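Annex B. Sample input.
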Amino acid sequence: MKRCTAVLFTLIAGTVLVFAGGKKEAEVLTVNDEVPATLNVAALIGPSGVGMAYLFSNHPDLGTATAVSLEAEASVDILLPKLINGDIDIGILPPNVAAKLYNLDGKSIVAGAVVGNGMLSLVTRDSSIRTMADLAGKKVSVAGQGSTPEYVFRALLEKAGLKKDSVTLDYSIPTPELAAALVSGRISYAVLPEPFATLAVMNGADGSVPIIRAIRLRDAWKESDLGSDFPMTVCVIRKAYAERHPSTVRKFLAAYKASIEWTVAHPAESGAMVEAANLGLKAPVVTKAIPSSNYVYIPADEGRDSIESLLSVFLGFSPESIGGRLPDDGFYFR
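Annex B, continued. Sample output.
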């Protein structure tokens, strides 16, 4: 308990870790391949859980000897202690949180796959906004200070040649309230993830000036030569579990891949499953948002370039947000 508390305090408070010595040799998972009695999996309530909703209704078949349990956690702060303590074996985290946990907690996890790519949009009624440079002098509400939306947006503003503070960033409105604030006219510009961008567009369609996605940030990311896309969520595995049960982990990851592919291909049915699994989103919004949500399955080692491109942005703005350095080879499950 003391270890868990200390690690969580460091992760949440953002303490900078100072590393000494040179680069360590890549670690290789020990292959014992025992058949586990249980596999405990956690999704996050909200958009991160959408790709796993199918598995809540159709548990993956890992063999009769392994019982699979799935649960939905309300936040990263609730999921993290369960992952550290071993109550959860596989979970979903933002890439920067996964990197920070790996760097600060003795490499206790490995990344299995990227399960959600860039799904951020600059949403507004202002049809004159077509590029990042058009935002000079504007006040933009951003979904989440110190998170992927902030640092991706700030990096893109820099790439557009905008001077620091030429765009005012506002973090005062919680993400679930941003769509309503746009619709009511309380704010004029917002960086929103899916499905909240879709919700704003849906509810702001009436009237003479509709709400639009003026800029899809993944398009701006590519145009700025930062990479083809950026990850929003990764599936992580407790390293001790992956070492002892690699075949079981691979079976689950294969089932998760199939779940995401099914979700993308069946938005209407997926929306109903998300609502039935109590993942915090209504079926009609999920159904409408899935085509814009960029759910993917990319094995972590194949997605390393995109992960490191995003984490390098975090490293430039706030090194402590990823634990002070890029994760080494051992971070990527193979």
